[in-house]
Design a protein that fits this description.
50% of the residues lie in helices and 3% in strands. With 356 residues, it is mainly α. The chain has two domains: 91 residues, Orthogonal Bundle (DNA polymerase, domain 1); 216 residues, hpI Integrase, Chain A (Orthogonal Bundle), CATH 1.10.443. α1 packs antiparallel against α2 and α11 packs antiparallel against α14. It is elongated, with a radius of gyration of 23 Å.
Length: 356
Amino acid sequence: MPRKGQHTPRVPIGDVRDPDSLYHTVLRFGAWQREKNYSEKTIEAREIYLRYFVTWCDARGLRRPQEITKPILERYQRYLFLHRKKDGQPLSTRSQHTRIVPVRALFKWLARYNHILYNPASDLELPRLEHRLPKHVLTVGEAEAVMAVPDLATPTGLRDRAMLETLYSTGIRRMELIGIHVHDLDTERGTLMVRQGKGRKDRMVPIGERALAWIGKYRDDVRPQLASGGDDGTLFLTHLSEAFTPNRLTQLVREHVDAARLTKRGSCHLFRHTMATLMLENGADIRFIQAMLGHVSLNTTQIYTQVSIRQLKAIHTATHPGRMPVGRAVQEEALDTDRDTLLATLDAEALEETLD
């Protein structure tokens, strides 16, 4: 098993003796992305989907990038459309889209750096994505029911409550929760610095007093017991004194959601949906929600102005249902913006998270 931070060895595809094969081209594409400081998560995800494509090509005697034409790429799209998973279900439109996008990126790179004469994927039409609303969003009562699940008499139960409160209060992604360090919290200002979020962007988000109170109790009473050896400052630790893996965190949060005996299912992203929906219902301007979630834009035609953390903190305090009893009345001019677009964006993120 590779150690943390090491790449899992990949089984070669096709003739490994040919340095110009599709397989070696994909490896060089990955190396170029690392040189350009793409996130490791993006590189690894692209490689997974490109391996599907290279395997499909190899089975049809297509060995090199120069042999790939637009009709061949369209055949691959048709293959994805007709493909059936082990349970007999077809690939969703979004899954088809996700598998094609890295292929387009690969051939764009090849053409740009003159490895091929032209880009066969330049005019390739991608499947039209449907805009869906989230399947599950918790009510305030349901969210509070999940918060009450962890056993506060145990150190891990107190830790889990602090993590759930953080997800609910901030709506951050699971990888962002995993990456929180103890010094990222500013209890005086009521803010959390999210470092190297999606797209390797830092952002500051407000966090409620209640969540800070639970985090403080965990940090003071529990974390010293969990931290051992070389403490790197990661806030939330497992019983092995390590940061959570994405799958372990997802499993843990899902167990608490299931234990609340709700009719709704979900894990970390469920609280991202819930925070955005409840704050919108309580009158928060969609620009503030967008800033909290770390969305650059809700779609390609709408670019919103940046809002200050002080304004964002005030909106969060006024509209988030998990706040302390004392509240502040804040009035903001409403924007005529499609909230469904925001929720559909969140749903797309959730699907992407399950594919990682």
